[in-house]
Amino acid sequence: MKFYLISVLCLIFVNTIFAADEVSYTGTWSASQYFNGDLPDIDLQNNTLRQFLRVSIPGEEIRFHFSNLYGKEELELKSVHVAKSGGQGTGKILVDTDTEITFNGKSAVTIPAYSEVISDTLPFAISTFDELAITIYYGKIPEDFTGHAGSRTRSFIELGNAVSKETFTDEHSFVRWYTIAAIDVVDNEKKYEALLCYGDSITDGRGSTNDKQNRWPDVLAEKLQSNPATQHIAVLNGGIGATTLYGESTPKSPTGLGRFEKDVAEQTNVKYMIVLYGVNDILFNGIDAKTLINAYKELIKKAHAIGITIYGSPILPFKTQADYTEEKNEVKETVNAWIKNTPASEGGFDAVIDLASVVADPNDEMVFNPDLCDNDGLHPNYLGHNAMGNVADLSLFMDKEDTEQANVDKKINKKVIVKCKAVKKY
Ligand SMILES: *[C@@H]1O[C@H](CO)[C@@H](O)[C@H](O)[C@H]1NC(C)=O
Question: Does the keyword Signal apply (predicted)?
Answer without folding.
Answer: yes
